[in-house]
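Example 3.
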Amino acid sequence: MTSLDAAMTPEEFRRAGHALIDWIASYRSRVEEFPVLSRSTPGSILESLPSSAPDLPGDVAEILEDVEAHLLPGIAHWQSPNWFGYFPSNSSEPSVLGDLLSSGLGVQGMLWATSPACTELEMRMLDWTVEALGLPDHLRFDSPGPGGGVIQDTASSAVLACMVAAREQATCGVANSQGLSQESTPLVAYASSQAHSSIEKSVRLCGIGSRNLRLVETDQNMAMQPEALARMLDEDAAAGCRPFFICTTLGTTATGAFDPVADIAPLAAKHGCWLHVDAAMFGTAALCDEYRWMHAGVEQADSWSFNPHKWMGVTFDCSCLWLKDASLLVESMSIMPEYLRNAATESGGVVDYRDWHVQLGRRFRSLKLWFLYRVVGLAGLRAMVRRHVEITRELVGWIEAEDGFELVAPAPLTLACFRHEAGDEVTRVIMEAANATGSMSLTHCEVDGRYVVRFAVGQWGTTLDHVREGWKRIVSVAKDVTSS
Amino acid sequence: MTSLDAAMTPEEFRRAGHALIDWIASYRSRVEEFPVLSRSTPGSILESLPSSAPDLPGDVAEILEDVEAHLLPGIAHWQSPNWFGYFPSNSSEPSVLGDLLSSGLGVQGMLWATSPACTELEMRMLDWTVEALGLPDHLRFDSPGPGGGVIQDTASSAVLACMVAAREQATCGVANSQGLSQESTPLVAYASSQAHSSIEKSVRLCGIGSRNLRLVETDQNMAMQPEALARMLDEDAAAGCRPFFICTTLGTTATGAFDPVADIAPLAAKHGCWLHVDAAMFGTAALCDEYRWMHAGVEQADSWSFNPHKWMGVTFDCSCLWLKDASLLVESMSIMPEYLRNAATESGGVVDYRDWHVQLGRRFRSLKLWFLYRVVGLAGLRAMVRRHVEITRELVGWIEAEDGFELVAPAPLTLACFRHEAGDEVTRVIMEAANATGSMSLTHCEVDGRYVVRFAVGQWGTTLDHVREGWKRIVSVAKDVTSS
């Protein structure tokens, strides 16, 4: 082998690879030693890095020294068991290895023909997951009918893809072919006022416009009010608009609220709207029978998505999306230039996943889902889910029992939202002081115009002790803040 | 540590990780032993996999046995030095390790605050790459002005993002806010008839419609004809349309043609169009001074993109996009819900990359670019590029010298397109027979209505011997085909 054959010899790759695996194992073991959130100031990492790429080769050992010295201070430790901010983003060890295999094989999965195993393992993983979550059989490839699933990068891309498919369904393909400027009837989309920002982003991206997104009122639990939705749909239809897309959320970002899909589905049917379900964060809970109450009405949804890269433990990115009729998505996305034509595609007997999303190229992402299932097993995943829900129940009890604090939303699963009765400013200062200890991360949201702290349980290694210590810290900090 | 603390113990992770690194090193060493293209029939991999996820835990050794037995037969070996199909997709060893570190750290880079190192290393890598490619300084973050770059997943997503920014610029934000159905003036986009299918996909996705994409005629070299573009622009403007976006390609997918950006830029300026440059495949060549002829006119481009995940060796996905004025993109993409608000963002002094693309969540992707630069060095990358161009020159000489074959397009870099004079059917049969040997992969395209074989050099390990053997095989197969 000459030096031109590869960027590293097999022996160099082995040595550096083992060292890196060891570094990661060490990092995971000592992750609690670092301040959970980074204390970097803007520009400080940038300044620590040379301004030009090196001309000459170097080695991985030197890079790992720089990771320790220059990058770690700028890392927010999402893999820490004291991570309670935003959402859990579990990059579990088995899935880290599955993704490493994906890079090692280095295949492109844009067409079935460009690596059949990439497409077929993904199909199988999506079918496994339908069963594991107790979703309707009609979403499986191996059931009769046009259902099936795909791994998208994020739930944002998934909702964009579904919205485009819905737009084409509503306009009989005119938007794709002629453009929306030829449409005199405005298309209108609906989501609750608590829905994720990606819904508005999608409405903008696909040319519908923010003005044509209706944010439906929520009830005291922050869930969409079907009566309010019904009223809006009727008003819009009467005003000559065309309702085309309803996005329901199972577990909103701010407070984890669940929209009543079963009550909303008949309204979608009445108005001929695409019904999308975004279960990005809490879909994972459906691994367990006792949380499948969230599936009420799901058999009527046109599309259902969740992110295994959040709670479930698949390293980012892995967002699963299923469609009741995948052909609607494929038809809205497919363009076949000559350079992609091949016998397998023309046989009609294969899935070409490039037609299921914006991107053409794609990684072998199902490997990281496969490794997770194989190494941990469904029983192990269910145990993790149940543990986190139980821990959160304890936390909720502590919040409710603590003078000065109030829970501001139901916490059926693993997100507890609370505030201090002394007001928004005090609540904010308490959160920032707790974060400043370096021992935990918390983030905030707004509920009814009030500043609210979110305590998101779900990092794989989080135990009752971590949460107990975290809550004690908040209470202690609150005493300092309110007495000063 | 209890079994709940992590999906694997550090010791289990170390052991399995080392085994997997060794497996990848072994796979890369024996990659030439496999048929380059998969011989799987549709459904065969699917059938080899159980229909349900396991309940109980397993180990990585078992998975690797299944990879060998069930997945490898379904792999098309993109990392083989005999890969000449589509485009090279080099997943170099250093970048495999960089991406492994990304999974190991498991951070989310959506905001600067969610891991400052993720944002700032990416900014630095984008600046390094501007210099490495000899692109204009105004695209660097560390130059005065509003320029900067971002890693997108694919060039498809990059062109969609730029098209949306251009749409908002042309409509003064009305498309985002009111929707395109409020626009009576159709927006019109332009690309050559040889441009990538992602341009049409973007035009559809963002509501412009295929009808409003003009495919400009090309010259004898398959490059866009500026005179034809000028005529179309004038006609559309006269007809009351609004030209808003011109996509030029440096290295088209079919034949590697280069549009004359310098001649097109004044037309873009005259009509107030956004000028995008898609150099997805061949941008890498600009690492070398002698191929920077492709930069003529680049200082006038609004956006410029290329894919380090193709020839350059960064494991998929890594598509770099620079903007002359990044604020136009950010303004068209940004939505700030309360749950993402933070002090750093509000200071205005940081980059939040979530506003640079469709997705909210994002991996620490710059690590794989950093590892590549650090381990190989620019000198090593340039040597690889030069070697592949030299090899292709030899190949072109052989094609031109061989009776019965003709080169159908210029091959200034590493893509040679040829056909057999006996016609399309014979050309197709020759390609399929060469692929059927299992010793190489070739794909095809259409040029002037004729079936043409593409021989894409650029896999990292490809040497002159591999290409010589490949060409001999084609010639030998052609003799069999034409004599039978």
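Chain A has a mean pLDDT of 96. Residues 82 and 432 of chain A are 15 Å apart (CA to CA).
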